[in-house]
Design goal:
Largest sheet of chain B: 4 strands, parallel
Largest sheet of chain A: none
Helix content of chain A: 40-55%
CATH architecture of the largest domain in chain B: 3-Layer(aba) Sandwich
Low-confidence stretches of chain B: none
Number of helices of chain B: 15
Mean pLDDT of chain B: 96
Structural class of chain A: mainly alpha
Shape of chain A: elongated
Oligomer: heterodimer
Number of helices of chain A: 10
Distance between the termini of chain A: 19 Å
Number of domains of chain A: 2
Helix content of chain B: 40-55%
CATH class of the largest domain in chain B: Alpha Beta
Largest interface: A-B, 62 and 59 residues
CATH topology of the largest domain in chain A: Fumarate Reductase Iron-sulfur Protein, Chain B, domain 2
Strand order of the largest sheet of chain B: 2-1-3-4
Radius of gyration of chain A: 20 Å
CATH superfamily of the largest domain in chain A: Alpha-helical ferredoxin
Distance between the termini of chain B: 29 Å
Order of helices and strands of chain A: HHHHHHHHHH
Strand content of chain A: under 5%
Chain lengths: 172, 291
């Protein structure tokens, strides 16, 4: 992440914050007064040298759009929602991060492991494919056959919507 | 019998048949019937919500529609599935505009989300439908020598405004359900902190450092085992101990069990029936303490 680079006025997109506050979960972005409860309670920040939710929120408020959307640390949130639950200003921190990820994804910025889950859902209806061997093991345990999966209608719907067409376009 | 539409998800059937077997064997003994419905799909967990929220809500709603059509409330084993589905269910019930957009997406799959069913985690079902008293009376084995480090995982409790499961800062439901089986639920440092499971595959070193702390803290507190609810927490802490061994050269061997497995054992179901040999960390010593 490049947060140590001094901020240039030309980087600032003053309208960025309004993009966020009109999206579901981003509404309360501007209430943040930088107390740092989110970072100090974050289970990931304790073990990561770069991931700081407070910084992401401040950069977003300031309009550092390109920095935020291109940042590797954006994808380090483990979605535990502790920050959202504990924010004294009611900022849904984890949801703001989700909103930012949605915007990054629109630009085709998505880490490989996330892409794999998406393609798995598009192909099979499940985020993790169930191996053939495991199916046999299930039978030997006396477990009932899995309900008919592979729900073609939803897969087709998602493809029809162009769910993540950009993911397929964009190489790693 | 109270019937629920079972939402299995994908991690449990793909990797943890022991969890499924335990739930399928234990819950009916307590009057909970699990009904399998065809065409269930992914729950659209946080990694998918990260890509596109509205599409993810539509996938979650698609599953809830299947339960609505069958006129059943839904029960989940995986806390990840619980979070995705319960969150979607609440959000769509609360927000007419969002519901209309999701229904527009779902109409091309021939579905309509009505919002007349509940999504429950099986702990809620045990508390609300079975009750602690009946649970206590159903126990046939003596678990009183076990010190249990409960670990509910994040998505049972948070985001609390949408899930409304328990007090997220001082939760008690899970511990009461453990103690109802006769075991002792103990406190340990950072009990409520995340296991880091969702970072696996993206930042493995961070994920493993977080998991290691959980293993160290439960071991220091003198726990005989960790009891989990979420297949990711389980994976992170059970298989995780193998990874900790090779990365940190430390060996802990603390058994990890899902609550449904502990429940099955307490009800007197044979370990073999519960498929406990799927665990990476051996349970022999623990099982010898259950009489």
């Amino acid at each position: 992440m490049v947060e140590k680079e001094p901020i240039k006025a030309s980087e600032i997109d003053t309208k960025f914050k309004y993009e966020i506050t009109k999206m579901h979960g981003g509404e309360k972005l501007m209430r943040c007064f930088q107390c740092g409860t989110c970072t100090s309670d974050c289970p990931v920040a304790r073990f990561s040298e770069t991931y700081r939710p407070r910084q992401i929120i401040r950069m977003t408020q300031l309009g550092l759009k390109e920095r935020v959307l291109n940042s590797d640390t954006l994808w380090l949130c483990a979605s535990c929602f502790t920050c959202t639950d504990r924010c004294p200003q009611g900022v849904e921190v984890a949801s703001v991060i989700r909103v930012l990820r949605n915007l990054a994804a629109e630009k085709g910025i998505v880490p490989r492991v996330f892409k794999e889950q998406v393609s798995s859902v598009l192909d099979s209806g499940y985020a993790y494919k169930i191996p053939e061997l495991r199916m046999k093991k299930r039978e030997s345990l006396g477990l009932p056959p899995l309900p008919k999966g592979n729900p073609e209608s939803i897969c087709k719907t998602l493809r029809g919507l162009g769910f993540l067409k950009h993911l397929e376009k964009q190489g790693e | 019998m109270t019937s629920y539409a079972l939402f299995l998800g994908c991690t449990i059937p793909a990797r943890q048949p022991h969890y499924e077997a335990s739930a399928r064997k234990a819950l009916p003994q307590l009057g909970i019937e699990l009904v399998d419905l065809d065409n269930m799909t992914c729950c659209a967990p946080p990694p998918l919500q990260s890509i596109d929220l509205e599409t993810s809500l539509s996938i979650a709603a698609y599953n809830i529609c299947l339960a609505e059509e069958a006129d059943l409330n839904m029960i989940t084993l995986c806390t990840g599935c619980f979070e995705s589905l319960a969150m979607a269910n609440t959000m769509l019930k609360q927000n007419e505009k969002l519901k209309a957009r999701v229904n527009q997406i779902l109409s091309s799959a021939g579905k309509e989300f009505k919002g007349n069913k509940e999504v429950k985690h099986y702990l809620q079902v045990l508390t609300q439908d079975v009750g602690l008293d009946r649970l206590k009376k159903s126990v046939t084995k003596d678990l009183s020598s076990l010190k249990v480090a409960s670990f509910s995982g994040c998505h049972l409790l948070r985001p609390s405004a949408l899930l409304k499961f328990d007090d997220p800062e001082r939760p008690h439901v899970f511990d009461e359900l453990i103690e109802a089986l006769g075991a002792k639920s103990i406190w340990y440092r950072n009990k409520l902190k995340c296991c880091g499971g969702l970072l696996r595959g993206y930042a493995d070193d961070v994920a493993l450092a977080i998991a290691r702390e959980k293993i160290v803290n439960t071991t220091k507190a003198g726990a005989d085992c960790i009891v989990t609810l979420c297949p990711f927490c389980f994976l992170t802490l059970d298989l995780g101990q193998m990874l900790i061994k090779s990365a940190f050269h430390e060996e802990y061997n603390i058994p990890v069990l899902h609550y449904a497995e502990l429940l099955g054992l307490a009800l007197g179901i044979e370990p073999k029936e519960l498929a406990l040999d799927f665990h990476k960390i051996r349970l022999d010593k623990l099982l010898s303490e259950i009489r």
